[in-house]
Amino acid sequence: KLCILKEDEGTWVIQNSSKQFSLSPYLSPCREAVLLVVYEGLDKDDVHNLTIEHTPQLNIAVNDTHAIVEIENEEFEACKDLKYELQCQSSESDTFTSVLNFTQAGIIVEKYQGKVCMLRGWIEEAFLTMAKFEYINIPGANNEDGMPFALRLTVLGLVVLVAVVIAVPVIVFCVRKRK
C-alpha cells in the first residue's frame, strides 16, 4: 500500500515488502514537522490516520529569580534558531498574555513571582501555533498586601515568638496562684 504525507501533498512513501516505510527523511534535526500519515489497511475502506509531531519538547527548571529551559528531545538540543515565549496569567482573569520573547536558555523571572505562566519553544514561524506550552508556577509570590512570602513567614514567626514569651509567664503565674 501507499502512504501520503499531508505536509507535502506530492510526497508518496512506498512501503517495503515487510509493509514498513521510513519517515526519517522528514524528521531531521533542527527541523520541525507535523505530518499526517494516511495509510490503507487490508481494503480500500480500511483507512487509518496518524499524526506525528516533531517539535522541541521543553523541560523548565524554575526558582524565585530564574528559569532555565532544557530541550528534552536530542534532535533539537543543538539548534541555534530556537525561540521562546513566556506568557503569564492575568491577575484579573484566566487569560494568558505574552510577557517575554527570548532566544537564550535562561531568563530572569523575578518580576513574575507568584504567577502561573506557560512557556513554549519553536524554530520556524510556521510551527508557532503547534509549539506545545509547558506550564510553570514561578515561586516567591507577593501576597495581596505586597509582602513577599519569605518576609510574611518571618513576621509570622516573630508574632508567634512574642505570643509564647507573653503567654508562658502568664500561664506559670496563674498555675502558681492556684496552689
Strand order of the largest sheet: 2-1-3-4
Could you tell me the strand content as a percent range?
25-35%
Q: Count all strands and give the number.
A: 11
**How does the overall form come out from the CA principal axes?**
elongated
Fold and architecture overview:
- The chain is an alpha+beta fold and 179 residues long.
- The chain is 17% helix and 35% strand.
- It has one helix at residues 149-178, and strands at residues 2-5, 12-14, 33-40, 47-54, 58-62, 66-71, 83-89, 96-102, 106-108, 116-122, 134-137.
- The strands form 3 sheets. Strands 2-1-3-4 form a 4-stranded antiparallel β-sheet, with no helix packed on it.
- Residues 143-153 have low confidence and may be disordered.
Give a short synopsis of this structure.
By secondary structure, the protein is an alpha+beta fold.
SSE blueprint:
Layout: E1 2-5, E2 12-14, E3 33-40, E4 47-54, E5 58-62, E6 66-71, E7 83-89, E8 96-102, E9 106-108, E10 116-122, E11 134-137, H1 149-178
Antiparallel strand pairs: 1-2, 1-3, 3-4, 5-6, 6-9, 7-8, 7-10, 10-11
Defining key terms:
single chain, alpha+beta, four-stranded antiparallel beta sheet, 35% strand
